[in-house]
Write a structure and sequence with these properties.
By secondary structure, this protein is of the alpha+beta class. 38% of the residues lie in helices and 27% in strands. It has twelve helices and 18 strands. The chain has an eight-stranded mixed sheet, sandwiched between helices. A hairpin with a 3-residue loop joins strand 1 and strand 2. Helix 2 runs parallel beside helix 3 and helix 3 crosses helix 12. It is elongated, with a radius of gyration of 23 Å. 46% of the residues are buried. The model has no long low-confidence stretch (mean pLDDT 96).
Length: 413
């Protein structure tokens, strides 16, 4: 069936370029969803749309057999593209707060959509090669951590049978053609925290009358750098990042408050608790030391669960990849990124496997690796320069989706 990848390439690459040029933020994927739904209908799928805002579902029943669900996320990021590509995004739209932001597919969700559509088409065109039910699920708002939940709340369980297995993939800055699997805990949990600390405003020329929240915030940031280094046991995994600080409106005005936004990644609930407790203790302690007139506030949001791949399902996928991709299939280390995909199979009590797909130019990657410049030369996800190579990435991502599905549905990849 994967021999049809060559015939698929022209349509798929055009679809991908158009999608990359016209990205949409989470829960705003109206045009993307419409294009996906139209393509699925053309392929002969039973289509349901507007699930949990903009989610799309395509179901192809091909006789009795297992039910395989494959998911792709559709949303883009508020990033200004700097790839120089002829199909680069120049889109700017209001975000959920009404602020105009640039929009870019800086995490490869356009790759995921194009690959799943390609797999859906190949399976529909080759019904003699498999038996069962294939579900192509296109999810909104993965970057907001609530897209999977929104589809479940929107009635997903009433629209599909319980999957025998659920599958998903994500493109990373690895050489195109490589596919990596890992059994067990694979992607970390993720939590964002918005902290507001309070000061006393004043004129910039009269700092003695103020409690400066900028100095307070700076002290907090410095202290937080010791949490992972000094409060998490060696050998345990944790990441604590301060991604945003906001305070003030003018250089000669001392503001009355500052906002910090933190991101926490862990694989262990006990480590997560240690970090959260340390963050609270440090913030409250620094506020007290600064004479803050009000206690700080903490808002936890964008929670992602740990992604734990089912051992049996992952072994099946890994063997299928080894048979098809040969040495390009490998076992990957745990990743500090986070995902909400697992909420869907867990809602059905279904096993799942989530793997990674390379998207970087292999020659450029090898050259940068040899020079020790991977970090600077190969843009990572969420970078304004993130741009997977089209041909190898789409071809192999589509092949991976088909090969994994056929490990349950058929025997003729």
């Amino acid at each position: 069936m994967t021999a049809g990848l060559v015939d698929l390439a022209g349509w798929q690459e055009d679809f991908y370029r158009d999608l990359h040029r016209h990205p949409e933020l989470g829960h705003q994927e109206v045009a993307t969803a419409a294009s996906v739904a139209a393509a699925l209908r053309d392929f002969g799928y039973d289509v349901h749309d507007r699930i949990g805002s903009t989610g799309v579902l395509g179901i192809f029943t091909n006789g009795d057999g297992p039910v395989v669900l494959m998911r792709a996320d559709m949303d883009a990021l508020p990033v200004a593209e700097d790839t120089g590509l002829p199909y680069a995004s120049t889109v700017r739209v209001p975000d959920a707060d009404g602020d105009e932001v640039p929009v870019m597919h800086a995490c490869g969700h356009d790759v995921h959509v194009a690959c799943l559509l390609g797999a859906a088409r190949l399976l529909a065109e080759s019904p003699s090669a498999w038996r069962g039910t294939y579900i192509a699920l296109f999810q909104p708002a993965e970057e907001l951590a609530d897209g999977a939940r929104s589809m479940l709340d929107g009635g997903l369980a009433d629209l599909i049978p319980r999957p025998h297995v659920a599958l998903a993939q994500h493109v990373l800055p690895l050489p195109a053609g490589r596919v990596g699997t890992r059994s067990g805990a694979f992607l970390s949990s993720g939590d964002s925290v918005r902290i507001t600390v309070w000061g006393r405003g004043s004129h910039g020329s009269m700092p003695q009358l103020a409690v400066d929240p900028v100095v307070l915030a700076a002290s907090i940031v410095v202290r937080l750098q010791g949490v992972v280094a000094r409060e998490v046991a060696p050998g345990e995994f944790a990441v604590l990042t301060v991604g945003r600080i906001a305070a003030g409106t003018k250089s000669n005005i001392i503001a009355d408050h500052a906002v910090l936004e933190l991101n926490i990644r862990t694989f262990s609930e006990s480590v997560r608790t240690t970090i959260v407790n340390a963050v609270r203790r440090i913030v409250e302690g620094e506020c007290a030391a600064s004479g803050s007139p009000r206690p700080p506030t903490f808002e936890f949001y964008d929670h992602y669960p740990v992604t734990v791949n089912d051992p049996a399902a992952t072994a099946t996928v890994a063997q299928a990849f080894a048979d098809y991709f040969g040495d390009l299939a490998f076992t990957i280390d745990r990743q500090s990124a986070s995902e909400d995909f697992s909420e869907i199979p867990e809602a059905f009590g279904a096993p799942y496997c989530y793997w990674v797909l390379g998207g970087a130019d292999p020659e450029a990657y090898a050259k940068a690796d040899a020079a020790g410049t991977l970090a600077s030369e190969i843009p990572a996800n969420h970078s304004p320069r993130f741009a997977p190579v089209i041909e190898g990435t789409l071809r192999n991502g589509t092949a991976a989706a088909v090969v994994a599905a056929l490990a349950w549905l058929g025997t003729n990849p």
